[in-house]
Design goal:
The protein is 40% helix and 10% strand. Strand 3 (76-83) and strand 4 form a beta hairpin. The chain has six domains: 13-53 and 188-243, no CATH class; 54-181, no CATH class; 253-409, no CATH class; 411-452, no CATH class; 463-527, Leucine-rich Repeat Variant, CATH 1.25.10; 657-738, Alpha Horseshoe (Serine Threonine Protein Phosphatase 5, Tetratricopeptide repeat), CATH 1.25.40. The protein is built from 32 helices and 17 strands.
Length: 738
């Protein structure tokens, strides 16, 4: 059993006055160089969240109460104070003991502010006690902890259990709160992480501490040359010396009697147009849930620099609504607006980041107010009449930060009831039921002679996430539907991976030729459970991929393929792809999840020495990381080192007794040992902790059968199917016993 974990690797910072690029590319010049010619834009930027993304801790930048204030969490009382003009906190360290720490930097400005602390190894850690910068009337001006004591876990809608202590992976001293690897590249400009794996240390440098002009526009050296001498324009390219132009956006105009505007230059500025797409991808580089593959540079193709997370649980609800922090882009990619060519700057001022127009007037730039900004359309007065309150429902993250969904969907309360997703109606009418909200909408539609809206993919995604094989036909239909957005199609074929058959594999092969890299990405990722021979047959004719995100996933899928069995030309291409995968994984070397990913790759390549090194590097960074510990235990199993495997599993179980995966791995160890009674304890615990996991259920039933309890096993699986649906692997065990 091998466990892959792709964690959130959001790498992201004002220090040097000028930096020379070593590779001969244009140099960064600093935001201060821009203000002479661009005074208004510079002034707007100084009011923005980008400007305050990160600052040195000073009397001006620090907003929290450091007047000897105290905050108690999980039995630990932390104290915030000043001394000699500097800011300090005494709080629990990695050993659970109180220690004084100097506050070096502020992180963010509204509605919350976090604080960074320098560690001896060059790491900067983000304190998980946060200052609520909202007004007292809004409930702010207080210290609070990112994880309330009664909640536990990354998804605030599902968190249950104990508070965080120093042994928890989510403690502020751990890798999940490491600024260098998780935050820095999107909060600063010209960042170099400079991680040293040998001693797990950092020498992280930045050009500007915050998000400066060149973070979006690119290096400004040649632009300054162009501005100083217009005769140099031909030598500095078509974009006034910048690597790209992002300042244009679609020009929208109402057609008489039309409900919504059309772009008057659709071909130039549509989502397929280069200027609009570059602008959106420039924003998406940080405003997305993704894994970086290489240093992100303005003007680069997004799918070369990043591997975007598709619409997967638990990141998204089955209808595509955001669940965890996914940072806008994955939501916006689902929308009709993105498909029609709407760009970020149509709604947001790119320098101040504020809305271009307040209220419904922002939307009625394009959507005819005589049709949409009417009671006959929204059926509300006051707050309920605001477009965003129905079409951009809000989810609160980090305790106080309400963020709006950018997929611009219609409220569907009945669908929300079925799939367990939120809906806009009941965010306001929280004293009413989903069925009440749906009946109200149905009554409105009936009065207007309007047919109810139908969701295109939510139910199929929900059923697939529950393991229901009956969803397979609809998933294929969605994946092959060119009218759907690329992220939806890619997510559909990804989900179909658990149901693959000859028909779907033929469809998957056709999707590998799709023009949208997200469709191709989903198709490649859907092959995880296929045997290597079948993977090779499907993928070897698709090695020449334009998007790096697709290439590295193909490399991952074909890692166990012996190169000597291939024609020399194919082997050479695939070997280069393997090197590219390793390079991309090492780009994120300071994130333990990337070390696990690298270890899994080496494992498949049968390079067990390097696999062990990668797993151990992950544990050097995060000693209790479950995926690293379980994969290392599995490596020991393969190498015949069963006692080392057992010791690793026992220690992991001591730390993570409520982990389904660890209990399952422990059960499998006892299966190999022939101790089926002990094995059943671990397997049953895993089933109880993760009751919808078909693999756990079928393995437990097979364990019962080993103890001559086949009738009990059949009854268990039949009951499981009645509750959770006929997942293929569960049904296969039952069918084999008929």
């Amino acid at each position: 059993m091998r466990i892959a974990l792709l964690g959130l690797l959001l790498l992201s910072t004002f220090v040097c006055p000028f930096v020379m690029a070593e590779d001969g590319s244009p140099s960064l010049v600093g935001s201060a160089s821009c203000q002479t010619c661009h005074r208004e834009q510079y002034r707007e930027w100084q009011t923005s969240h980008h400007f305050s993304a990160m600052s040195v801790a000073t009397q001006i930048s620090v907003l929290g109460d450091f007047d000897n204030s105290q905050f108690t969490y999980n039995g630990v009382t932390s104290r915030f104070y000043r001394r000699d003009g500097k800011f300090y906190v005494t709080t629990d360290n990695a050993e659970g003991k109180l220690q004084e720490f100097h506050i070096g930097y502020t992180f963010g400005v509204y509605p919350l502010q976090q604080y960074l602390i320098d560690f001896p190894n060059g790491a900067k850690q983000v304190l998980s006690i946060i200052w609520d910068t909202r007004s007292k009337e809004e409930g702010g001006q207080r210290w609070y902890h990112l994880y309330p004591e009664q909640l536990h876990g990354m998804d605030e809608t599902k968190m249950q259990g104990a508070a965080i202590d120093h042994t928890d992976p989510l403690h502020w001293t751990g890798s999940m709160f490491n600024w260098n690897s998780r935050c820095a590249s999107c909060h600063s400009t010209g960042l170099e992480v400079n991680y040293e794996p040998e001693n797990n240390s950092f020498n992280t440098q930045w050009f500007e501490i915050n998000v400066g002009c060149e973070a979006c526009h690119g290096a400004g050296e040649q632009h300054l040359q162009w501005a100083a001498n217009s005769q140099e324009k031909p030598k500095t390219g078509p974009n006034k010396g910048f690597p790209q132009s992002i300042n244009n956006h679609a020009k929208w105009g109402h057609i008489p009697d039309a409900k919504s505007a059309n772009s008057d230059t659709y071909q130039t500025f549509s989502s397929s147009g280069p200027v609009a797409q570059r602008q959106k991808e420039t924003c998406a580089a940080c405003h997305s849930r993704r894994t970086p593959l290489q240093a992100s540079t303005p003007g680069h193709d997004y799918n070369d620099d990043h591997l975007l997370s598709l619409l997967e649980s638990p990141l998204y609800y089955a209808d595509g609504q955001m669940r965890e922090e996914v940072f806008v882009w994955g939501s916006f990619l689902q929308s009709k607006m993105q498909a029609a060519g709407v760009t970020c700057s149509n709604c947001h001022n790119p320098h101040s980041l504020s809305l271009n127009i307040q209220g419904n007037a922002l939307c009625t730039q394009c959507h005819n107010p005589s049709v949409f900004d009417q009671v006959e359309h929204h059926h509300h007065e006051g707050e309920g009449a605001k477009c965003v309150n129905c079409h951009m429902p809000t989810t609160t993250y980090m305790g106080v930060d309400g963020r709006q969904d950018h997929s611009f969907r219609l409220p569907r309360p009945a669908l929300a009831e079925r799939i367990g997703a939120p809906n806009a109606c009941n965010q306001c009418h929280d004293d009413k039921s989903n069925s009440w909200a749906q009946q109200t909408i149905d009554n409105w539609n009936k009065a207007r002679g309007k047919q109810p809206s139908v969701h295109d993919f939510a139910e199929a995604f929900f059923d697939a996430d529950s393991g229901d094989i009956n969803a397979s036909t609809e998933l294929l239909k969605i994946a092959l539907d060119s009218g759907q957005t690329g992220i939806v199609r890619g997510s559909a074929i990804l989900r179909h991976g658990q149901f693959h058959n000859s028909q779907s594999l033929q469809a998957t092969q056709s999707l590998l030729l799709d023009s949208d890299p997200l469709v191709r990405l989903g198709a490649v990722r859907s092959m995880d459970a296929l045997p290597i021979g079948l993977k090779a047959r499907l993928l070897l004719n698709h090695l020449e991929q334009s998007s790096k995100s697709v290439r590295v996933e193909i490399a991952r899928q074909l890692a166990s393929l012996p190169l000597e069995q291939l024609p020399k030309a194919k082997a050479k291409v695939l070997l280069a792809m393997f090197d590219e995968f390793i390079e991309s994984a090492k780009f994120n070397a300071s994130a333990p999840e990337s070390q696990v990913l690298l270890g899994l790759f080496y494992f498949e390549r049968q390079d067990y020495v390097l696999a062990e090194q990668a797993y151990r590097q992950a544990l050097k960074i995060s000693p209790r990381l479950e995926s690293a510990r379980l994969n290392l235990a599995d490596l020991y199993r393969l190498l015949g080192q069963e006692q080392q495997s057992l010791a690793m599993l026992k220690q992991t179980l001591t730390w993570l007794p409520d982990s389904a995966a660890t209990n399952y791995a422990m059960g499998l160890w006892y299966v190999r040992d022939g101790n089926y009674a002990a094995a059943l304890n671990g397997l049953l615990t895993a089933c109880e902790l993760d009751p919808t996991n078909g693999r756990y259920a079928s393995t437990y039933a097979l364990g019962l059968d080993k103890l001559n309890k086949r009738q009990d096993a059949k009854a268990y699986l039949s009951d499981w199917i009645s509750k959770h649906g006929a997942q293929p692997q569960v049904q296969a065990v039952l069918d084999a016993w008929r």
